[in-house]
Every structure is written in structure tokens, then in C-alpha cells.
Amino acid sequence: MSRYHLSDQDAVASALPLFSEEVAKLYEGGKSLSQLAEIFSASRSTITRWLKQTGTPCRPKNGPKPHIVVACEICSKEIRVLPSAATRKRFCSRACKHADTGKRAIGNRYRAGIAPSNKGQPGHPAWNKGLKGIHLSPSSEFRKGHRNCRAVSVGTERRRTDKAGKPRVWLKIAEPNVWRHRAQIVWERANGSIPRGFLVHHENRDTTDDSLGNLSLQSRANHINEHREDLEAARAIHGIARKSA
After folding, report:
1. Residue pair 182/171 in contact by the 8 Å Cβ criterion
2. What are the pLDDT digits (tens) for 146-194?
């Protein structure tokens, strides 16, 4: 938040003799244009104009950033890094990193004779020592026979979209999560099981109208011929060429 509480940018521009020296001093001290713009409630271009009028050169936009020197933990070679990476940059090369890893572990296991730094030390017992069989959150634990709050009963109907993008009605027929097309159930209740290689066809092309009078049993070959015009139209819309025999 600004420390100067000026009403608008015109007032800021008129305050150049008052703020120019302080702007230059803060900029030379490491403040960025964005930070100065926020402090003085001005735009970046106004801050830049102030600096030019006071003779303060602007830093390059992508100029060098300040670095610090840290030492590699393996070979003690000096490494120049940004301050933000000083705690993460521990090695000068991949070879040094691998050398450090090889001292302590093979893959994801500790080497023979190398143990965790706090193993067996007083004050560092295992977090679960003596807690075998304890229930830390009994009110929210799943119990035998627990039923999910989203579970629905057998006979529930759901409207879903199939791979072809057509809506269909599904019916839950058994627990825990067994569903079938409602059209198949309606047909089988009236005519028995559906033979292998056959499927239920909707005569009026409405895939959600599962009344018995709208259903018929067709072989897959006849069903393809029944919908061939629809398939050809879909290929034409999507620009799919028909494979030659």
C-alpha cells in the first residue's frame, strides 16, 4: 500500500521536486520500478520519467541479478547461485550429487551400516510405538457393512450418454454397482434373454423411449444397415472417408 496517499497520477506528477531524490535513492538501493510505483501510487512509466529527469540510469530489464557463493558439500568447489536457491544448491555437479547419494543409500535403501540419523536416539521413538490397534478417528472410520452416502438402491434409473453421444437410460439391477440398459431389461421381461449377436433397436430413433412397442430385436448386421444413412451422414460431417473394400 502507498505511503503517500496521493489522489491521482496528476498529483503524483506535480510532486516531482518533492519525491525525485527519494525515488532515486530507493531505486539505487535495489527497489524495482514496480515496487516504487506501488509506494508512490504512480505508474511505472511515471517512475521511469522521474528517474530520467534526475539523471539516474535505469537498470537493464533482464540485467544480471545478485549472486552469492556457496561451497559444494563433496568437493568444496565454490558455486555462484541466486539467494533463493542457496539452501537447495548443495552440489556443483551431477557427479558430486551421485557421490553423496552413494555414501548413504543403494537405490531407495540405506547402505549396510548406514542408518537414519535419529535411529535409536533418546527422544526419537517411532511415532506409532505402542499404538497397535488404536483408532485415531473412530467417528469417521469405515466399518464393516458401511454404505456410501452416495449409494443408490436397486431399481434406480440414471440417464447417461453413450460413446456415440446418444442419451440412454440405465437401470441398477444388483449390488454393489451393477447397471444395464433399461431397454434390454424391458425386452427380456417380455420376450426372454437376448441371443448372442443380437441387440435391442429403438424404432423411432429415440434412445430414451424404452416402451415395449418401440423396441425390436435385430442382429448386429441388420442394425448397421438400419442406421447406415445416419453413419454416412456422420462421416460426411466429420470428413471421414469410407474405407474401400
Report:
1. yes
2. 777 888 999 999 999 888 788 999 999 998 889 999 999 999 999 999 9
Please list the residues that pair with 198 across neighbouring strands. Answer: 219
8-state DSSP, 234: H
- In terms of Cβ atoms closer than 10 Å to its own Cβ (0-12, 13-18, 19+), residue 12 is buried
Tens-digit pLDDT profile for residues 96-125: 887 777 666 555 565 566 666 666 667 777
For residue 197, what is its C-alpha cell?
Answer: 449377436
- Helical pair 44-53 and 16-28, crossing angle rounded to 10 deg: 90
- How far apart CA 200 and CA 202 sit, in angstroms, is 7
Q: Which cell goes with 124?
A: 526419537
Nearest residue to 208 (alpha-carbon basis) of 178, 188, 182, 229: 182
Concatenate the DSSP letters of all residues of 41-97 into one string: T--HHHHHHHHHHTTPPPPPTT-PPP-EEEE-TTT--EEEE-GGGTTT---SSHHHH
Of the candidates 150, 153, 186, 151, the residue with the CA atom closest to the CA atom of residue 168: 186
The conformation of residue 178, written as its DSSP 8-state character, comes to E
Residue 94: pLDDT band (50, 70, 90) is: confident
6, 16 in Cβ contact below 8 A? no
User: DSSP of 81-95, one letter per residue?
Assistant: E-GGGTTT---SSHH
